[in-house]
Amino acid sequence: MRITKRTNIAIRVLMFCEVNGGRLVTKSEIADCCNTSENHLAQVINQLGQLGYLHTQRGRNGGIELGRPSGEIVIGDVFRALESHVPLTECFADVDNTCPLISACRLRLAIQDAAEAFYAHLDQVTLDSLVCDNDPLKAIMVTENCGRKSASAG
């Protein structure tokens, strides 16, 4: 199973907001620390905001913060919300399915069961559990440490 770049960035954004909790963070801070473009990040932030995972505030003093406590953000729910439109294999696609085995293939059921087990495991993980007592993550995501690797590498 491969996770989309959008979901990967979304989890980074959520972790960044939790590590830097207590203040509004900016899109440029997140982009710098999470190694992604601001344009791609804007799309992810917008979607996370629509889903209620982020609160966004526009304007000169604007920024982004978590939309709910990190203990209430279940990673399985985030993955489902962002990945549900991406079929695991061709046979799960409604429109583009050209597989001639669809009516007799048992692999489809096995893949479906595996995906459910994957999500069930992620349902046990909260954003808080990814960040709480994770000092190495916090050291990377504290704003003043972001971008140092790329700046010192050049």
Search tags:
154 residues; mainly alpha; Arc Repressor Mutant, subunit A; two-stranded antiparallel sheet; 2 strands; 51% helix; elongated; disordered C terminus
Q: Care to give the gist of this entry?
A:
The protein is mainly α. It has helices at residues 5-19, 27-34, 38-50, 75-83, 107-122, 127-131, 135-141, 148-153; strands at residues 54-57, 63-66.
Commentary on this structure:
The chain has 154 residues and is mostly helical. It has a single domain, classed as Arc Repressor Mutant, subunit A (Orthogonal Bundle), CATH 1.10.10. It is built from eight helices and two strands; from the N terminus they run αααββααααα. The protein has helices at 5-19, 27-34, 38-50, 75-83, 107-122, 127-131, 135-141, 148-153, and strands at residues 54-57, 63-66. It has a two-stranded antiparallel ribbon with strand order 1-2. Strand 1 (54-57) and strand 2 (63-66) form a beta hairpin. Helix 1 packs across helix 3 (38-50), helix 1 (5-19) runs antiparallel to helix 4 (75-83) and helix 4 (75-83) packs across helix 5 (107-122). It is elongated and about 55 Å long. Residues 149-154 have low confidence and may be disordered.
